[in-house]
Structures are given as structure tokens and as C-alpha cells.
Specification:
Strand content: 5-15%
Radius of gyration: 23 Å
Number of domains: 3
Bound molecules: iron/sulfur cluster
Oligomer: single chain
Largest sheet: 5 strands, mixed
Length: about 425
Amino acid sequence: MKKISEDAGKRARALAASVKELGEGLLGKLLEGNSLGRDLEPGAIERLLAANPEGPGLEDCARCGSCKARCPVYELTGNEAFSPRGRLMLLRGLARGDAQPTEGLLGRIFSCTLCGRCDVSCPVGIRPTTSIYRARDVLRKLDSRRLLTRTALRAGLSRPAMGMSAARFITGLKHNILKKLAPRFPEGLRLPARQLKSGHQVITPRKAVGRVAVFAGCSANYLMPETGEDLIGMLVAAGYEVVLPGGEVCCGMPLRGLGLEGEARKSAVKNLEIFGKLNVEAVVSPCSTCVYMIKKRYPELAGGCVENAVDAAEFLLFPGRLKLEPEAGVRLVWHEPCHLKYGLGSSAEPFLRLLNIERPEEEGCCGFGSFLTDKEISRELLSKRVKAYEGAGVVVTSCPGCRIQLESAGIKTAHILEIVEKAIPAAGSNEKMAG
Ligand code: SF4
Ligand code: SF4
């Protein structure tokens, strides 16, 4: 018995030594790129390593590599430094002074799409994205490459109506230095001249069965107001009193993705003040990413969340809420938003069956998550989707961001709410949005 335990002890020590060696060797390989010639600001390392309220953090990584298997950027590049494990090792090296904040290190941290697939793969319970968000915040001031995008986004989201006017003006220009300097918009992005109705409103059905609020999100507010209107119309048709509380701001996801943690926190606090206190059955949103953010990621940002937030399709397609009669027609193919599946842990299966939507043979991340931070990775991930969706009549999804990304490659898309709307018998008789 003693012999067996001695052997097991030896094996464990050998394994630990080889993992350590692998780690040290890997760190050397992972570190590429020129030094930025600037140091991290005081307190940066403490912020990076701060205790993680949700569980284990950066220092607890056992380097097992399970998280790599699902990472779309690792799959694309085949490079350890672009995997969740590699990124965590780089950050640990940075925290311990073994790595410097080089251009290469920043590139690896900002190439992540923040899809969250790694967060559900770790046997230790680490959410690598928490460290990646923190690292982006900590590295932000050294990151001149994304400075313009960051500045434009911060300005645009602080006054979205003005931001939209500026965006319309810039996209309307032909050849102009301003257009060259301005952060690029996705190809073919429509910038409507109107927005979803703003200000506090309550829309009441003839006979109410319940009361819900709508968190429209920036896309449905400013880029696809028709999606927000479809949602409100269908909620009313299903018998719900709909509250638009007014004062909603960006969920904070794009801000946080660019390292603007402080601004994202302010957004979270503001939205929590508005949506956290409403006396409603659910806060329904047509954007899976917004739901993921306000429900699952607000706790680490603002210490609370919109507990009853729910994805619009999941809410409306709950058995018995709406009578549907989908018609056979064009071939509908599903694009699963990463934040719906991995972030919210929701299964689209029941509503895909209900609406005759097929799953493609090969699924994956569309790359929208790195559109603002690493265009090359974003574009390469998108090309994989283009191949996977060949032959589809319309690609259906529940995330406006994924739609924007897919349409930029010429793919015809629809929000799932459009498909639901069409499947409601006598859809024209839905109660319309009241003023
Ligand atoms: S969030 Fe997605 S892209 Fe980023 S490390 Fe995790 S799996 Fe990879
Ligand atoms: S799965 Fe978890 S423990 Fe394993 S390498 Fe990834 S983060 Fe580290």
C-alpha cells in the first residue's frame, strides 16, 4: 500500500514539474511583439488579481487546457497565445513581472471575442473572460491602437442620438479624411433616421394577463427600431402590459469589451436603478447579449443584476403564450449567438422546431465580439460562417450584433422575432403600439 502511494506521489510531482516546465517554456513562446516602452499604471496588478467574487481566478488556473477546445480564436489561429489558457498565462506572467505589456501581449488580449465559451468549460470553475475584461481595463491606457475606437464609442454612447447623427454624417461622406480616421462601421450597416420611442411609456392590452418591461438595447433602440416595435406588438398581442421605463442606457458590453470598465459600471448602475425596481414579471429584451450582460455580468460590475431579464424569443415562445402557424417557404437556418447558448445556458431547440428553423451542420462564433478590437480575427471568423451558411435562404438569429456582422458579409438575415411575427395567424391584427 505504502509503495503504491509513494508511486502516486512521485507521478504527481513529476506531472507538476512538467506542467510548470511547460508553463515556463510556453510563456517564453507566448511573449512576442515590441515593448510599448511604458509601464502599467500604479494599482494595475492589484486590479488584475483582485479577489474574484464569483469564485476562482487567474492564479487558480491548473493549465489543463480544457477551455481551449471551444475557443473560436484558438481554433482559427492554432496558437496557444490566442487561447484562453494562453491569455491567462500571459496575464499571470504580467502580474508576476515575468512578462511585459508588449504590443503582442495586448494583441492577444484584445483578439478574444468574449464569446464566453471558455467560461463554461473550466473544471476548476474559472471564468477566463473575467480576467480578460480586467486586463483590458488595466491595459487600456497603453493601447493606442484602439484609442480612436474607444473615444468614439465612449462619446457616441454617452449621447446616443447625437452619436447616431454623427455616424450618419460620416457614413454619408464619399472621400474624406474624417471617414478614413473614423472607426469603420460594418459593411452595409443601415443607420435609420428614427429610433424606438423614448421616454416612459406603458402600453396596455385589451385584457392584461401580466406585466413586463422591455430592455431594448442600443441595437433595437437605434439601429433596428422595427425589431423593438415587433417585440412590443407581440407582447401586447400575448396580453401583456408593456412598460418602457425610459432612461435606459447601453447595457455596457461594448464599453467593457474595449476596456472602459468604469463607464460600463456607470451604465450598469443606471440600468439597475431603472430596471431593478420595476414591479414586472420579466424584463424582456430582443438582444441575447444585453440579457446576458444585465443578468449574468452585472453582479461583478455593480453588485446586483436584473434577475428576471429574459431573451424575447424564449419569453414569447413559452408554451401557450402565442398561437403560431409557421408557413413553409424559404429555408431558414439558425445562427446561435454565443451569449444565448454559453452565456445564458439557453437552448434554442424548442423554438427552432416550432418555427421550422434548421441548425447548420457546422456552428460557430460570428466574430462580432472582436469587431471593435481585432478586425482581422473578426473577419476570419465571419468567413467561416459565410461558408457554413451557403445555401440558406435566410439566417435567423436572436442577437442584433450577430445580424450586423453576418449582413456585412452579404448574408441575408432576420431577427427571430420577425419569423415569430410572420407565424402569428392574422399578424396584422396585433395590437399596435400605443403612443
Ligand atoms: S471568450 Fe471566447 S474567444 Fe475569448 S478566450 Fe474564451 S473562448 Fe476564446
Ligand atoms: S480550463 Fe480552467 S484550469 Fe484548465 S486551462 Fe482553462 S482556465 Fe485553466
